Amino acid sequence: MKVQALPLQESNRFETGSLITRMTNDVTQVQNFVMGIMRIFVKAPLLGIGSVIMAVWLDRGMAAILLATVPVVALLLYVNIRLGTPYFSRVQKALDKVNVILREFLAGVRVVKAFNRSDYEEERFFGANRELTRTTTASMRLLSVFLPFIGLVVNMGIVLLLWFGGNRILQQDFQPGKLIALVNYMVQILISLVMISNIIAVLARTKTSAARIAEVLEVEPAPTGKGTLPEEKLPDLGKIVFEGVSFSYDGALEEPVLQDVSFACREGEILGIIGPTGSGKSSLVQLLVRLYEVSQGSIRLDGKDIRAMEETALRRKVALVPQKSLLFTGTIRENILWGAEGAGEEEMVEAARKAQAHEFILQYKDGYDTLVGQGGVNLSGGQKQRVCIARALVGKPEVLILDDSTSAVDGGTEGRVLEGLLEDGRGTTILWVAQNIRTMDRAHRILVMEDGKVAGMGDREMLMACCPVYRELARSQMGRRL
Ligand SMILES: Nc1ncnc2c1ncn2[C@@H]1O[C@H](COP(=O)(O)OP(=O)(O)OP(=O)(O)O)[C@@H](O)[C@H]1O
Ligand SMILES: [Mg+2]
Asked: Within a 10 A sphere around the Cβ of 415, how many other Cβ atoms?
């Protein structure tokens, strides 16, 4: 689906709520239009033109009255549409806003409660609702002013017809039957005019909806499938090589998030990545699975530029456990197996064991069939993180990225997770992002990030000796013992 293919840079731009309105309400608008228009579009003009011809054929003089009212009504309808259209995009925007707020509220209901902000959120919701009510009533009010006006003009036309016709009938120079017919034609013409104007109004609205849908559809999809670069084998400097990588998020600060980052990581190495919050650790690892594209420089995996690799192949090799654990509604089994198509029971249990999740899962009555609530509400933070790690492991990746994935796990369990990862000797390369400097003791080497730049790389002793950022982190976390 298109929304899936949106580059992440772009999906940040459309709020989820807005995407939902676009996918439901806007699509329905366009659908209604296409279905409704077929009949009317042919019928209305034919009826109108037919009636005019008949009226003129019956009596030219009387038809003049009829023809005089038509432009007046047409003009009124035109003004109506002209004024009404801008309202519609406002109505749609207001609807968007209501959806955005509602979605946020529902997704964050716990935070809202915990902070006692129900009233505030309610007010925000009512505010958005009021805005929606206001714009909708405003557009309806506009309609309600114009419709009686049009009725008035039409009726005055009929009165004129009756008046002149009646006089002529009294003078015996006109037949009552003809008069009735004329009045009927008059009504018929005006009905078709109103129908046409309705079509135009709906068309205007549909245009807004269609434009909103097109806005989503027109975004260049994120590159998929075949890589964008020709494949070439470069000198094998290691499993993972970052070379002069710079990166900035679209429309974010002028200062790039990553600047000229270069490092290499050997096969089977555990590379710790540490640095103050906001130093670009998560951005760095997301580049490796191509959730975002580098702005400058290149990233190589097994000596191949990752832009030259097929995305699916890349992601089979590299598994990322994101910083925010996200579980889907379903059983734990489904959540773990989600990580690899076609993985069986054995692989699942093995992955769960390595991630130190097997034991706590078995403590549930239903074991692996325990239902995970929406977003994993019935699991603790650390349990969620371990299920997420198991999900990444089940696909047997060559490179495993743990982005602060053990932050909610106690030190002992964290150590066992690492041992679990090492024990099979498959030589998985691990990028281990963490805030805690102690976690890093188990890494072969540590990459220190600061402000999007590499501040140092090496083992603990070396960094203590020559990397001030590392020393500062160590001092702040370990207290006076250092
Ligand atoms: N989706 C995004 N859009 C725009 N800017 C972003 C986005 N994500 C992160 N940033 C910015 O990029 C910078 C680096 O963020 P990043 O998440 O990589 O830091 P981090 O080192 O992982 O921090 P933490 O330790 O808190 O997880 C920050 O200044 C942040 O404001
Ligand atoms: Mg992060």
From this structure: 17
What pTM value is reported for the model?
Answer: 0.70
189-222 per-position pLDDT tens digit: 878 877 777 777 777 778 778 888 888 787 766 6
CB atoms within 10 A of CB 207: 16
Whether the Cβ atoms of residue 320 and residue 388 lie closer than 8 Å to each other: no
The ligand 1 atom nearest the CA atom of 404: 27
User: Residue 427, by phi and psi: left (phi above 0), alpha (psi -120 to 50) or beta?
Assistant: left
Is the Cβ–Cβ distance between 188 and 51 less than 8 Å? yes
Report pLDDT digits (tens) over 399-450. Answer: 999 998 888 888 788 888 888 887 766 778 999 998 888 878 888 899 999 9
Q: Write the single-letter amino acid at 253.
A: L
pLDDT at 482 over 50: no
* Residue of 281, 385, 454 best suited for mutating to test ligand 1, as the one with most atoms within 8 Å of CB: 281
Answer CATH for 240-481 from 2.60.120.560, 2.60.40.10, 3.90.226.10, 3.40.50.300: 3.40.50.300
Pocket residues: Cβ below 6 A from ligand 1: 12, 249, 252, 257, 275, 277-283, 323, 404
Closest-approaching ligand to the CA atom of 255? 1
Model confidence at 253: pLDDT above 70: no
